[in-house]
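I hope you will forgive my troubling you with a question about protein structure. I set the record out below, with my sincere thanks for your time.
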Amino acid sequence: MLLLMAVCLVAEPKTCREEQIVWSIENAAAMQCMSAAQFAIVEWQTSHPAWHVTRWRCVPTSAKKIDI
Protein backbone atom coordinates (compact mmCIF):
# COMPACT_ATOMS: atom_id res chain seq x y z
CA MET A 1 0.00 0.00 0.00
CA LEU A 2 1.24 3.51 -0.77
CA LEU A 3 0.50 6.69 1.09
CA LEU A 4 0.71 9.47 -1.51
CA MET A 5 1.06 13.00 -0.16
CA ALA A 6 1.09 16.37 -1.86
CA VAL A 7 3.44 18.59 0.15
CA CYS A 8 4.27 22.27 -0.24
CA LEU A 9 6.97 24.45 1.25
CA VAL A 10 5.69 26.52 4.17
CA ALA A 11 7.77 29.52 3.04
CA GLU A 12 6.76 29.14 -0.63
CA PRO A 13 3.29 27.53 -0.83
CA LYS A 14 3.42 27.34 -4.64
CA THR A 15 6.48 25.05 -4.46
CA CYS A 16 4.96 21.59 -4.13
CA ARG A 17 5.93 17.99 -4.78
CA GLU A 18 4.68 14.46 -4.27
CA GLU A 19 6.00 12.27 -1.49
CA GLN A 20 5.17 8.64 -0.93
CA ILE A 21 5.45 6.20 1.93
CA VAL A 22 5.41 2.50 1.09
CA TRP A 23 3.84 0.09 3.58
CA SER A 24 3.91 -3.67 3.68
CA ILE A 25 0.15 -3.81 4.19
CA GLU A 26 -0.80 -4.38 0.55
CA ASN A 27 -3.86 -6.43 1.42
CA ALA A 28 -5.07 -4.07 4.12
CA ALA A 29 -8.50 -2.52 3.91
CA ALA A 30 -8.71 1.11 2.88
CA MET A 31 -9.87 2.09 6.39
CA GLN A 32 -6.75 0.48 7.92
CA CYS A 33 -4.55 2.47 5.59
CA MET A 34 -6.42 5.69 6.31
CA SER A 35 -6.09 5.16 10.07
CA ALA A 36 -2.38 4.35 9.88
CA ALA A 37 -1.82 7.23 7.46
CA GLN A 38 -2.73 9.82 10.07
CA PHE A 39 0.16 8.73 12.29
CA ALA A 40 2.56 8.45 9.34
CA ILE A 41 1.67 11.96 8.19
CA VAL A 42 2.34 13.38 11.67
CA GLU A 43 5.72 11.60 11.76
CA TRP A 44 6.63 12.83 8.27
CA GLN A 45 5.49 16.38 9.06
CA THR A 46 7.54 16.40 12.29
CA SER A 47 10.70 15.33 10.48
CA HIS A 48 10.13 17.78 7.59
CA PRO A 49 9.09 21.05 9.32
CA ALA A 50 9.70 23.18 6.22
CA TRP A 51 6.96 21.28 4.36
CA HIS A 52 3.18 21.15 4.81
CA VAL A 53 1.03 18.19 3.73
CA THR A 54 -1.83 19.59 1.65
CA ARG A 55 -3.48 16.36 0.39
CA TRP A 56 -3.01 12.65 0.82
CA ARG A 57 -4.53 9.33 -0.16
CA CYS A 58 -3.94 5.62 0.13
CA VAL A 59 -3.53 3.58 -3.04
CA PRO A 60 -2.53 -0.01 -3.76
CA THR A 61 1.09 -0.28 -4.86
CA SER A 62 -0.06 -1.80 -8.15
CA ALA A 63 -2.13 1.32 -8.94
CA LYS A 64 0.91 3.63 -8.94
CA LYS A 65 2.99 3.58 -12.12
CA ILE A 66 6.64 3.01 -11.35
CA ASP A 67 9.18 3.79 -14.04
CA ILE A 68 11.96 1.27 -14.36
Residues 2-59 form one domain.
